[in-house]
């Protein structure tokens, strides 16, 4: 198997997707038994779906909260923690996962691009209440309300048709810019993601355009696999612990 050299000149930007949590028992979105297989995305993960049937949306996210609370990080998460400890500020983890497992494993430099399953916020854009931690699994038949303005609460998740937080995108871009400006070796590694959802799926092209090196660790050839220079096929929990050569 190829190895990825992580030395004092390396700046590593990692992108993870649902596949990284699969070995922890969290279902992925696409493919066999994927969450979107029997759950229309537009009904449970869009502002329109929420406006139409907030109960259904909360039932879906409450089930996911219950499922994600019971699982633990796997060796793939742990490998990323070890890489971050080795590289320090020359490491950044951008994740599309909302399950919180990277932080639970010990990752600190994390950008949760698609939000967090255990955070809720008021659905009223004019309400001043900030997003807040919320582990509640709402009983079916309950749609929680905001205690400040009375509007419905919603999960703090980026739904289809919504924009990512511009601060998150800036943090990722700045990391790559800093790596290039410092004359370092910029490496981008994507793991456990189908490359189907933008802007995350476009990160590989941006890094290549900036002169960076690109790696993919995935069970199957993802939709954008041909954009990567290195493809290590396999389970992230098995590949990542063996991939990094820390010097
Ligand atoms: P997907 O379900 O689309 O893709 C998961 C990928 O992980 C697939 O390519 C699998 O082959 C791969 N995979 C499965 N098990 C693996 C393992 N043990 N090790 C390595 N790879 C494995 O999930 P994402 O790409 O994360 O958005 O999906 C992107 C976004 O689409 C999600 O964040 C979500 C979804 O709609 C929102 O909810 C906003």
UniProtKB/TrEMBL annotation:
InterPro entries: DHS-like_NAD/FAD-binding_dom, NAD-dep_sirtuin_deacylases, Sirtuin, Sirtuin_cat_small_dom_sf, Sirtuin_class_III, Ssirtuin_cat_dom. It is an enzyme of class 2 (transferase). Residues 1-247 form the Deacetylase sirtuin-type domain. SUPFAM superfamilies: DHS-like NAD/FAD-binding domain. It comes from the Bacteria. Its EC number is 2.3.1.286. GO terms for molecular function: histone deacetylase activity, NAD-dependent; NAD+ binding; protein-malonyllysine demalonylase activity; protein-succinyllysine desuccinylase activity. The keyword Transmembrane does not apply. Keywords: NAD, Transferase. It holds the Pfam family SIR2. This is protein acetyllysine N-acetyltransferase. It comes from Myxococcus fulvus.
């Amino acid at each position: 198997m190829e190895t990825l050299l992580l030395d004092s000149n390396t700046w590593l930007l990692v992108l993870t997707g649902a596949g990284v949590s699969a070995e922890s028992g969290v279902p992925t979105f696409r493919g066999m038994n994927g969450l979107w297989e029997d759950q229309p995305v537009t009904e449970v993960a869009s502002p329109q779906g929420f406006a139409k049937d907030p109960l259904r949306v909360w039932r879906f996210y409450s089930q996911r909260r219950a499922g994600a609370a019971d699982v633990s990080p796997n060796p793939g998460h742990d490998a990323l923690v070890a890489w971050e400890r080795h590289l320090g500020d020359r490491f950044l983890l951008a994740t599309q996962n909302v399950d919180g497992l990277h932080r639970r494993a010990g990752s600190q430099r994390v950008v949760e691009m698609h939000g967090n399953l255990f955070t809720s916020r008021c659905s009223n854009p004019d309400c001043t209440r900030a997003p807040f931690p919320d582990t509640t699994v709402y009983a079916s038949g309950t749609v929680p309300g905001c205690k400040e303005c009375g509007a419905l609460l919603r999960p703090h998740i980026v739904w289809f048709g919504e924009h990512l937080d511009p601060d998150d995108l800036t943090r990722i871009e700045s990391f790559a810019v800093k790596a290039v400006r410092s004359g370092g070796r910029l490496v981008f590694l994507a793991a456990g993601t189908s490359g189907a959802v933008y802007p995350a799926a476009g990160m590989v092209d941006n890094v290549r355009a900036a002169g960076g090196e690109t790696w993919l660790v995935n069970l199957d050839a993802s939709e954008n696999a041909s954009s990567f220079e290195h493809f290590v096929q396999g389970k992230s929990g098995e590949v990542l612990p063996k991939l990094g050569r820390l010097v």
